[in-house]
């Protein structure tokens, strides 16, 4: 490396190099992400506010309880009253698509970390970097690679919001009680059966906690990424700042907070209520008695894992 | 007639099912050096002090017979769980060979090992290890599911296994809705569903309270009587070991110090460590009524046309005041006294046997521990008959045979 280059200059050169040589690949990524984001966005935005409010309130009633459902109903009606319904739905669709992408990449990455100490020690600094780098920094390369709009906004959001789901997937799998691992192995599980039938189901509460945190981080990032034209509630906040319009900024901020509270409570209920992966997928009603996996846990010792590998 | 308890307990044949020779397990790095020291006969603590390695199992060599209930006993940290896990290679042996049905498992490939675990062996755990995300049925079917058995077949087999442990009605319950004893029944059903030939049980009943624990031991023995497998059972409880074990293996600091039948171990303990297990043991707790029942009473089979005169003659001849009346299926009917029988015959009563039963004699269950029946035997005028759980006559306990037992063991 030539030390006359400053670090910043190096990053610059790298970005330009990628732009010059990988444009087709970048376009493909943009198309794929655009497909997910666009699909979700057009679905949510085209849903009439009354229907949207009814669906979210019903979800709150089912997963959380009637008091919270009333809160959801009133607060969403307030958003609509403030004229921010469309922005809220744009934001929600960005959050959902970023979360989907983060989960699709993050859970396998977490699994890989749990299964190999080497992968874990490689990924850990990368995760630290992703989490501690100021969120604005992602906006610049995202905008350079993918232009302005929802796609670079989603990508910047994914990078910023993915670490918790990776970390908590890894942690959840490593903390599955060694007797469960032993039971799986003693009955003749292959490594992949062990993962699917024993480790993932038992790590589900932890993974869901990761998903919940990823959603919350996406929401905070989505506001920032409106600076590169991602749209949504961030626009209201941004306009408020630019025009020093406290009212507009406050309304936008309030809508973000309401969305955050509703998303948080609903997603938390999935982590708490059902410890089973399948029951989660099947959206079965959780019974509060189910264990949350908080019992004493001993990481499987290497001896036993090597028998599995 | 062979001793009843022997019948119940032992299905052991003379064929070796599991055979260990010079098996060592060293935990830790630099195990080579530690292994050399172990070969040279250095003790666990010496080896730990100089290499930092822990000897889990130190030169184990013994055979476990087909159909046998083999109990591994020892104090905490003596290597019981390690030894058990070497048998299905949940823990890899450091050296030595372990043969199952004549095949050395220590050099099996991963694939062969998985096959072996699916087909031949299963395991029951101290804290049950039921998967919380599955209902009871799917827990019981777990081994079959993993082995790729089709849904219909595995449900059928899992239900049959649940039925065998009396939990068929709970098939749809979730594990956390069950009591400890019920959970372990599910654990047992899960282990039995794949019809393994070897059952590995690590302190399977230790987490249960004493009553449930005894019940589970009986359950295991009953299942074993119906369909025999080789059971390898880790326990730190002598009463449990005596109760269910055909043979007991005693471990100390990773070494196998003695392998023998409960009787051999009580009567010829290999060293003070083994003896120390028995020091506080109350023999009347260890022995069951069935163990000390003698078949020394006169038995009469109650059937059509049996001659009362001949019976009286027989009693007279052998100098007995009483005799045991059993059915053709050896089911216990009652105890008759000579006096009562003569009286009934004189009075020309129909069915003289039935009417001549001694009234205050109630049979004792074979599984009852001797300590529980001391009082009844002591108070009874006659020897007390003992019956098995199907009501068949096993033998009787007289005051003198009881005293003899307590004296010999004490
Ligand atoms: N994974 C491991 N790593 C290092 N040492 C171990 C490991 N597992 C067991 N040991 C050691 O091996 C020895 C035997 O342990 P083991 O668990 O087999 O004992 P145990 O007889 O089953 O005891 P307990 O009655 O407490 O269950 C102990 O000294 C223990 O510290
Ligand atoms: Mg143990």
TrEMBL record, chain A:
GO molecular function, one term: amine transmembrane transporter activity
Topology with respect to the bilayer: Multi-pass membrane protein
Tagged with keyword Cell membrane: yes
Entry's Gene Ontology BP terms: choline transport; glycine betaine transport
Source species, domain of life: Bacteria
Presence of the UniProt keyword Transmembrane helix in the record: yes
InterPro entries in UniProt: MetI-like, MetI-like_sf
Keywords recorded for this protein, A-Z: Cell membrane, Membrane, Transmembrane, Transmembrane helix, Transport
PROSITE patterns assigned to the protein according to its UniProt record, in alphabetical order: ABC_TM1 (PS50928)
Transmembrane annotation, as ranges: 53-79, 91-115, 135-161, 214-234, 246-263
GO cellular component: a single term: ATP-binding cassette (ABC) transporter complex
ABC transmembrane type-1 domain mapped to chain residues: 88-267
Gene3D superfamilies from the UniProt entry: MetI-like (1.10.3720.10)
One Pfam family this sequence matches: BPD_transp_1
Subcellular location: Cell membrane
Family the entry assigns: Belongs to the binding-protein-dependent transport system permease family.
Protein's name according to its UniProt entry: Glycine/betaine ABC transporter
Protein source organism: Pseudaminobacter soli (ex Li et al. 2025)
């Amino acid at each position: 490396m030539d030390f006359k280059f400053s670090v910043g200059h190096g990053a610059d050169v790298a970005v330009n190099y990628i732009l010059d040589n990988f444009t087709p690949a970048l376009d493909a990524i943009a198309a794929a992400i655009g497909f997910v984001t666009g699909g979700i966005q057009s679905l949510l935005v085209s849903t009439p506010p009354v229907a949207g409010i009814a669906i979210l309130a019903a979800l709150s009633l089912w997963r959380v309880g009637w008091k919270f459902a009333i809160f959801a109903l009133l607060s969403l009606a307030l958003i609509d009253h403030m004229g921010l319904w469309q922005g809220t739905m744009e934001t929600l669709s960005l959050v959902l698509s970023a979360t989907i992408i983060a989960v699709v990449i993050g859970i396998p990455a977490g699994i890989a970390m749990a299964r190999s100490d080497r992968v874990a020690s490689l990924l850990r600094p990368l995760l630290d970097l992703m989490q501690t780098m100021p969120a604005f920094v992602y906006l610049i390369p995202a905008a350079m690679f993918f232009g302005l709009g929802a796609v670079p906004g989603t990508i910047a959001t994914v990078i910023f919001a993915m670490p918790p789901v990776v970390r908590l997937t890894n942690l959840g799998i490593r903390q599955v009680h060694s007797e469960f691992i032993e039971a799986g192995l003693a009955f003749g599980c292959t490594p992949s059966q062990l993962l699917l039938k024993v480790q993932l189901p038992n790590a589900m509460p932890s993974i869901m906690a990761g998903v919940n945190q990823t959603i919350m981080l996406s929401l905070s990032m989505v506001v920032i990424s409106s600076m590169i034209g991602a749209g949504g509630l961030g626009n209201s906040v941004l306009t408020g700042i630019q025009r020093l319009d406290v009212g507009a900024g406050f309304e936008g901020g309030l809508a973000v907070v309401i969305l955050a509270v509703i998303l948080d409570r609903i997603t938390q209920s999935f982590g708490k209520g059902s410890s089973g992966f399948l029951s989660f997928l099947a959206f079965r009603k959780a019974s509060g008695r189910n264990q949350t996996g908080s019992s004493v846990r001993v990481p499987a010792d290497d001896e036993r894992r090597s028998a599995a590998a | 007639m062979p001793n009843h308890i022997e019948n119940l307990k032992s299905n052991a044949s003379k064929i070796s099912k599991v055979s260990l020779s010079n098996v060592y397990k060293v935990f830790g790095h630099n195990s080579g050096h530690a292994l050399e020291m172990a070969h040279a006969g250095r003790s666990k603590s010496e080896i730990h002090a100089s290499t930092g390695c822990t000897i889990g199992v130190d030169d184990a060599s013994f055979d476990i017979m087909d159909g046998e209930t083999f109990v591994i006993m020892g104090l905490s940290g003596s290597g019981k769980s390690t030894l058990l896990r070497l048998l299905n290679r949940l823990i890899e042996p450091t050296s030595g060979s372990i043969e199952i049905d004549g095949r050395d498992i220590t050099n099996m490939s991963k694939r062969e090992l998985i096959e072996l675990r699916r087909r031949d062996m299963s395991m029951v755990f101290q804290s049950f290890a039921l998967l919380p995300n599955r209902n009871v049925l799917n827990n019981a079917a777990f081994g079959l599911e993993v082995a790729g058995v089709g849904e219909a077949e595995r449900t059928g087999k899992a239900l049959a296994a649940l039925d065998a442990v009396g939990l068929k009605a709970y098939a749809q319950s979730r594990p956390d809705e069950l009591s400890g004893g019920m959970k372990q029944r599910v654990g047992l059903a899960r282990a039995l569903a794949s019809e393994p030939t070897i059952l590995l049980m690590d302190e399977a009943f230790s987490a249960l309270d004493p009553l449930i624990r005894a019940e589970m031991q009986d359950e295991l023995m009953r299942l074993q009587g119906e369909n025999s497998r080789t059971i390898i059972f880790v326990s730190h409880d002598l009463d449990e070991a005596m109760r269910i074990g055909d043979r007991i293996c005693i471990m100390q600091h990773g070494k196998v110090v003695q392998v023998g039948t409960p009787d051999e171990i009580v009567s010829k303990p290999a060293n003070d460590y083994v003896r120390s297990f028995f020091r506080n043991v109350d023999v009347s707790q260890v022995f069951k009524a069935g163990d000390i029942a003698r078949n020394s009473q006169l038995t009469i089979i109650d059937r059509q046309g049996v001659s009362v005169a001949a019976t009286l003659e027989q009693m007279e001849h052998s100098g007995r005041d009483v005799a045991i009346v059993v059915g053709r299926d050896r089911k216990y009917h009652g105890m008759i006294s000579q006096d009562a029988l003569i009286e009934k015959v004189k009075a020309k009563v129909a069915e003289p046997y039935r009417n001549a039963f001694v009234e205050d004699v109630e049979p004792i269950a074979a599984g009852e521990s001797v300590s529980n029946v001391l009082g009844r035997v002591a108070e009874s005028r006659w020897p007390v008959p003992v019956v098995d759980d199907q009501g068949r006559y096993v033998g009787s306990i007289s005051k003198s045979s009881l005293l003899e037992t307590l004296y010999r063991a004490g």
